Amino acid sequence: MRDITPIRDVLIVGGGTSGWMTAAYLWKAFGSRVRITVLEAPAIPKIGVGEATVPNLQKVLFDFLGIPEDEWMPQCNAAFKTAVKFVNWRKREPGAPDNHFYHPFGILPNIDGIPLPQYWFHLTGGRGEPVDYACFREPPLMDAKLAPRTRDGKKAVPHAWHFDAHLVADFLMRWAVARGVVHVKDQVRHVALDEQGAIARVECISGLSASADLYVDCTGFRSLLIQGALGEPFIDMSDQLLCDSAVAGAIPNDDARDGIEPYTSAIAMDAGWTWKIPMLSRFGAGYVYSSKFASEDQATRDYAALFGLDPDKVHFNKIRFRTGRNARAWVKNCVSIGLSSCFLEPLESTGIYFITAAIYQLAKHFPAEGCAPGLVESFNREIEFMFDDSRDFLQAHYFTTSRDDTAFWRACKNELALSDAMRDKISRYKAGLPINAPLSSEDDYYASFDVEFRNFWTNGSYYAIFAGMGFLPDTPYPPLAYRADAADKALATLAAVKRAQAALVAELPTNYEFLKRFHGPSPSATRSPALAMTHGPASS
């Protein structure tokens, strides 16, 4: 067995959310044993990675760094997110009221290892009270715009966050630099390769030449290292998700009058959907659309009309993006993280999740000198699974639609290329079977990121989307017909959900009340003036 020679230097090219999350995480994981440098180009504009997140951010990143929620949230103008609310994703007749359903973060109850929605379908055939209101605790809380924490600060239901991504990057930059991470402000001019085709050094416009044992590409869509220098191909998946553009901005909100919604909204449009991400005094919003079905001018007009804006008086950020991933996220001595690695439209807030998962896997696969091929291949398999599994879940929002009123929705229903894994999930679901292994509790969900990584989009996620869209099983789960006590157990559990809903509605403060007290009288002092694409793609 040969000796292991640890690497000494890591150079992260690109700052922003992905760069500083990576720097902070690697410093905590390896400390002074590895010198970590962030090379950040101050002249390159940043595009927020996304103000909406998923619940594992606190456990995987901030708890690992030793930073409690109450410490980082006030410095990042952060608010709570307990679900995604999907508005008008189902067909509605002209003049009919809006329809909606929730994808909550709560863990579904299960009975004898079978998720509650299967009993719900066994009892109701999918008629009556919708699955989200029947089987999850959270929907009545969200209707009432209640916080996910009690008045004394205790966590009541699982939640994620809305925040200003620029403030998060700045917060983590200060945290990391204070602990010894080196911050260099310069711009890459050239990436030099060695005889084996690996990166030898990065040359900057100032004349600086920087070399390292391991390079991390956080340069966003430009992907300067892994695509630009190493030539790694990008696998385009535009046939699997049709949206490729966005128009975005930030919109003032009267919190005292309207409250602060504790969820992200995804509002269906003629050629895509619009996100709405509430925070104190404003919400970020943007229309994600397919340029095949709407021009930039039409998308801008439709977006402005949704919120009553004058398109001639508002500055909009207009962005083109591509859906897909690198064939390999790690090539030779270069690891890509964030948009330099992969991108999905932000329908389920995957941007921060992809970064968090990648840095977790990088630390788990952290190499010695030479970057052993087995480590690299294992890392690449994990990232490929993460991305493809998430892509499948996003597709589930589209091909199940009953909408047929525009060419975009008809194409989503009939033309998307589905993976074999997605077809298998559909087959299981239609036959009444669980899609993934059921989780017994919230503690089970958060117990191990490795477990969660392979089961991130849980049964609850799929049931919320499928049933919410009106896409139901062909048959109830057959073994339930042989269980004499199935109906009694299901009714008891459904009744327990109702009691929990009522207790939480009676106990919890409004989201506005909690956040106003939590942030203090002047949250605007921490607010970034940069109002870029607040839920979408990010650069360095």
Q: Runs with pLDDT <50, length 5+?
A: 523-540
Report the β-strand fraction as a percent range: 15-25%
**Count of distinct strands:** 23
- Average per-residue pLDDT, rounded, comes to 90
Gyration radius over CA = 23 Å
Helix content: 25-40%
Number of helices: 19
Distance between the termini: 40 Å
What structural category arises from helix and sheet content? alpha+beta
Q: Write out the strand line-up for the largest beta sheet, numbering strands in chain order.
A: 5-4-16-17-18-15-19
Major sheet attributes: 7 strands, mixed
Describe the structure.
- With 540 residues, the chain is an alpha+beta fold.
- It has 19 helices and 23 strands.
- The chain has a 7-stranded mixed β-sheet with strand order 5-4-16-17-18-15-19.
- It starts with 8 loop residues before the first strand and ends in a 21-residue tail after the last helix.
- Mean pLDDT is 90; it is low at 523-540.
